[in-house]
Specification:
By secondary structure, the protein is an alpha+beta fold. The chain has 9 helices and 11 strands. Among the domains are: 59 residues; 146 residues, 2-Layer Sandwich (Alpha-Beta Plaits). The two termini are 36 Å apart.
Length: 320
């Protein structure tokens, strides 16, 4: 039923584009016949909006990867920069939450570890919506922020780093075998909001897959049993995503970006001072509307990265 709904939505989207195109062209012809510049401007605006909608639909057609249609886990970790980076991790978490909201997707907070003074040391979100993983997977890597520090009494400029890691929520039909002996389980007391029970018992669970070093944590559920169950699902998703990445030529580069959250590994820079600019270092897409980006306007960056990624895959396939 999920696949049927996805296909039906894709077909309906094409029909809507065709219908809107026909209406816009009729409006343009009417404006030309009657010499009405107002109607002409309306037709031009409609065609421009239609072009943007068609461009997004074209990109969505590229989301044909094995797990692109799945929901996604988004893991944000603060890096070099102390309190600054913890605050930057919080800003990124908000940015992806707002991006999801703009696209009609829902967000669940799976895990949050507050920073010592402000912000977040780490956070894991579950984004639920059509093609959530397909879009968000292009955001994996290190993100760099340059700004005047709100935590520095001397108002000096600081550079902060945070890493973003994205992996698909594994569908129940996908079987992932994990040897329990390869997994270390740690329980601890949950931090942050959650009520008396959550904060006074060791209900939070962290699982570490020893062969790969992959670790996941969950603290949002009321009981340790519920957190353990959800953490196992997350671990399966991480291992599944690792297998998917091995099939892609970009896997080595992405893994290298995650090893060091600092200089030389960033995929995108966000500069607030001395000028305002967001620039993706992979695609060279840039914008001065930094507030719009921080409010979730990420489609231009995601689209360019997705096109580049698909283009590389096709080129390698032709070479092979």
């Amino acid at each position: 039923m999920r696949e049927r709904t996805r296909l039906a939505s894709a077909i309906e989207a094409v029909r809507v584009l065709e219908r809107e195109r026909a209406e816009a062209l009729e409006l343009a012809e009417l404006a030309e016949m009657e010499g009405d510049t107002g109607v002409g401007d309306e037709a031009a605006a409609a065609l421009k909006a239609l072009k943007e909608k068609a461009a997004r639909a074209e990109l969505e057609a590229l989301l044909s990867g094995e797990a692109d249609g799945n929901d996604a886990y988004v893991e944000v970790n603060s890096g070099a920069g102390g309190t600054e980076s913890a605050d930057w991790a919080l800003m990124l978490t908000r940015m992806y939450s707002r991006w999801a909201a703009k696209h009609g997707m829902s967000v669940d907070v799976i895990e949050e570890t507050p920073g010592e003074t402000a912000g977040l040391k780490s956070a894991t979100l579950q984004v639920k919506g059509p093609n959530a993983y397909g879009w968000l997977k292009t955001e994996a890597g290190v993100h760099r922020l340059v700004r005047i520090s709100p935590f520095d009494s001397n108002a000096r400029r600081h550079t902060s780093f945070a890493s973003v890691w994205v992996y698909p929520v594994v569908d129940d039909t996908i079987e992932i075998e994990i040897n329990p002996a390869d997994v270390r389980t740690d329980t601890y007391r949950a931090s942050g909001a959650g009520g008396q029970h959550v904060n006074k018992t060791d209900s939070a669970v962290r699982l570490t897959h020893i062969p790969t070093g992959i670790a996941v944590a969950c603290q949002t559920e009321r009981s340790q049993h519920q957190n353990r169950d959800r953490a196992w699902k997350m671990l399966k998703a991480r291992l599944y995503e690792l297998e998917l990445q091995k099939r892609e030529a970009a896997a080595a580069a992405i893994e290298a970006q995650k090893t060091d959250i600092g200089w030389g590994h960033q995929i995108r820079s966000y500069v607030l001072q001395p000028y305002q600019l967001v620039k993706d270092l992979r695609t060279n897409v840039e914008t001065s509307d930094i507030q719009g980006v921080l409010d979730g306007d990420l489609d231009a960056f995601m689209g360019a990265a997705l096109s580049q990624r698909v283009g590389h895959t096709r080129t390698e396939g032709e070479t092979a």
